Amino acid sequence: MNDMVGSKKALILQAARAIGAQKFTPAEIEQVRRRLIADHGEEGKTGVDYIADVLKSAGFRVILSQQEEAEEQYEEEFEDLLHFKTLSDAELSIMLGKRRAEMISRNPKVEPNKRAEKIEIANWFRIWLETPDAFFDWLDVRKQAPDFQEKFPQTESEV
Asked: What is the pTM of this model?
């Protein structure tokens, strides 16, 4: 039985390599599933969830939803975002953080509640950049504001 699982995984990886995709979305995973059936008949039948798990565990890039794809895009683009070795590094990091929050807030592929958070974060960056001395006092007041409490009720425990 263990050999069957091992050979099934090998067949999945072989089919994935033959397809040659850089990332595996549901469409590419379905291609792998169909290729397995076409090449191996009954032995090749397997579920898309199992195929996705095998591909992930083998290090392939698997993206199962538009939200995952959008979040991964931003994660890659802003990896190692905060650098404060020099003043110019710090300034650039702050500006990139603000830009990242604004970009995500405008992306329709990101969930509405996450976009609302990013709008809020972009506003925090704006206030910090415009009035750094008053920022933390402003933030304390902002977190207590009724509209903030309504939009982000889960953050009440953080206040």
From this structure: 0.46
